[in-house]
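Target chain:
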Amino acid sequence: MSQKMHIHWDSEADHLEIRFDEPKPSYYENVGEDVFERRDEETDKVIGYAFFNVQKRKKQIPQDIVVDIPTGAPVSS
């Protein structure tokens, strides 16, 4: 079974979320500058990311947001 990457953009909240695979119990860990890792409550593995103030950041300092891809994340071959 292949994994899916879910991407959700909320323009009103200025919030972008990326989740790997299906929803599961998780929590967010702040990694700085309005970037949060979504972590599996059971395994503590990174299962997604949340980015806040995306448009605001783009207007202030246009730049890419760079995060590490967790080991085991779905990647096409």
